[in-house]
Write a structure and sequence with these properties.
Mean pLDDT of chain B: 96
Helix content of chain A: 10-25%
Distance between the termini of chain A: 39 Å
Largest interface: A-B, 17 and 15 residues
Distance between the termini of chain B: 8 Å
Number of helices of chain B: 2
Shape of chain B: globular
Strand order of the largest sheet of chain A: 2-1-5-3-4
Strand order of the largest sheet of chain B: 3-2-1-30
Mean pLDDT of chain A: 93
Number of helices of chain A: 2
CATH topology of chain A: Ubiquitin-like (UB roll)
Structural class of chain A: alpha+beta
Largest sheet of chain B: 4 strands, antiparallel
CATH class of chain A: Alpha Beta
Number of strands of chain A: 5
Oligomer: heterodimer
Structural class of chain B: mainly beta
Number of domains of chain A: 1
Chain lengths: ~90, ~350
């Protein structure tokens, strides 16, 4: 099982958002599973073409994913996926 | 009477209400989130808020009870495989225009977007589809381009009150396009416009209408505040006439409104073009014409006349009978209750203002 954690910023739009325990072979499957639990959340993370939004990052056991376009990074032996936003201000 | 002001700002949707002829602050929705357009549908009373989260993309919200409750809907999406240019996938970057679909289709609404797609919903926003005939117009890939924003965008949508199949849109940078068959086919309507920034200013497509508006009472009379001046058409956009008057400052700007009854009365808020984008001489003014643009009057009463940087974006000037209101890039809102002759400050403390609407 993989634990999926989220930036607290997403709680504004999904107040019941909590870490999830899911089975997934790659990052794309994680996002799909997250969307099944919280309908519409995928659109906050990905753009229309399924690529990771510019100011969103996904970390897999502490390392940033490599494939931001199709989210094909494998999750073999991975324990934690963290979905976060980049910081910006003004 | 429309007694509510919706102000779409960089930090939320701000509401003012007219109470005994005083406009009073009510509340702010979506605090901290940029609101590119806030609008109300005159047919259904539905309020719409189009959001532009920096991180999370564009979002669409609808309220059926004047902002008491908001519901997030799926924002218009480009279909898989659609491209802005070769190799550049199309994704909704910005929600830039709201349009009502005509009295005979009360659940039809349009949304204009960057990178240039026009979307239609026939169920009051539950589902949207891209109008592919316009997206696939032969001119788009070769002659549309971004200015100010990275990619071209549709910012103006006019549906003829006499015939809801007659639709006209304004796109920057591309120009005016008309459909007479409910959006199945489109024709450029840019004759008489000047694209002075191009090698050939008389191109068919490549114009920059900052805003396109039609007279409510005379739907064949169109106005536009263009990058290259103020233009008017007496025949629904078939031919455009330059009605700028540079010596009276009526030339460059973004916003323009037309009187609801008299199609020859219009107001704009001019600023300096290109090299610096600030109020002319750092003094804010409104230009008004009562004769179809033959002459323009400069109005300064109540507006700051020194040290002023304010400019007014294309959707940030609105009119409702005797009232006019505009919001500026520095977060000031000015209001007039005498057809724009005299102005007072409504607030100095908002963020950048993107849209102003009386509802």
């Amino acid at each position: 099982m993989i634990t999926v954690k989220f930036t607290s910023a997403l709680k504004r739009f999904y107040p019941t958002l909590e870490p999830l325990e899911i089975e997934a072979a790659n990052v794309e499957e994680v996002v799909q599973s997250v969307n099944d639990h919280f309908p519409g959340l995928k659109d906050y993370i990905l753009d229309n073409q399924g690529a990771l939004r510019k100011h969103v990052n996904i970390f897999v056991d502490g390392s940033m994913i490599n494939d931001r376009k199709t989210l094909s990074d494998s999750l073999e032996e991975v324990k934690e996926v963290y979905i976060m936003q980049a910081l910006s201000g003004g | 009477m429309k007694n509510t002001l919706l102000l779409g700002t960089r930090k939320g949707l701000v509401i003012y209400k007219n109470i005994n002829d005083n406009w009073e602050y009510q509340n702010t929705h979506f605090v901290g989130i940029p609101v590119s357009i806030a609008a109300a549908d005159s047919r259904t009373g539905t309020w719409w808020a189009m959001l532009d989260h920096g991180h999370w993309g564009v979002k669409l919200h609808r309220s059926n009870d004047q902002g008491e409750n908001w519901e997030e809907l799926e924002a218009p999406k480009y279909p898989d495989g659609f491209e802005i240019k070769e190799g550049l996938a199309a994704s909704t970057r910005y929600l830039w225009a709201f349009g009502e679909g005509g009295k005979d289709h009360p659940n039809r609404i349009y949304i204009g977007t960057e990178p240039g797609g026009l979307f239609v919903s026939n169920d009051n926003g539950n589902n949207f589809e891209l109008i592919e005939s316009l997206w696939n117009h032969q001119s788009r890939k070769e002659s549309w381009f971004g200015a100010g924003r990275d990619h071209p965008g549709i910012h103006s949508i006019i549906v003829d009150p006499r015939d809801s199949n007659h639709i006209t849109v304004g796109a920057s940078v591309a120009g005016v396009f008309e459909s007479k068959d409910g959006g199945q086919s489109w024709t450029p309507q840019n004759k008489g416009l000047k694209a002075e920034y191009l090698p050939d200013p008389d191109v068919e497509v490549g114009h920059d209408p900052h805003i396109l508006v039609a007279s409510e009472s005379h739907p064949d009379i169109f106005w536009q505040q263009n990058h290259c001046g103020i233009f008017k058409s007496e025949n629904g956009g078939k031919e455009w006439q330059d009605v700028s008057q540079k010596e009276n400052l009526a030339h460059f700007g973004f916003a323009l409104v037309v009187d609801e009854k008299d199609p020859q009365k219009a107001w704009t808020v001019p600023c300096i073009s290109d090299e610096v984008r600030v109020a002319i001489d750092q003094a804010l003014c409104v230009c008004k014409t009562e004769n179809g643009g033959k002459t323009w009057e400069v109005i300064r009463s109540g507006l700051p006349q020194k040290g002023c940087f304010d400019i007014v974006y294309r959707h940030a000037l609105a009119k409702n009978n005797k009232y006019l209101a505009f919001g500026t890039t520095t977060g000031n809102v000015f209001i007039s209750s005498d057809f724009g002759e005299n102005w007072t400050v409504l607030t100095n403390y908002l963020s950048v203002i993107y849209s102003v609407a009386f509802v």
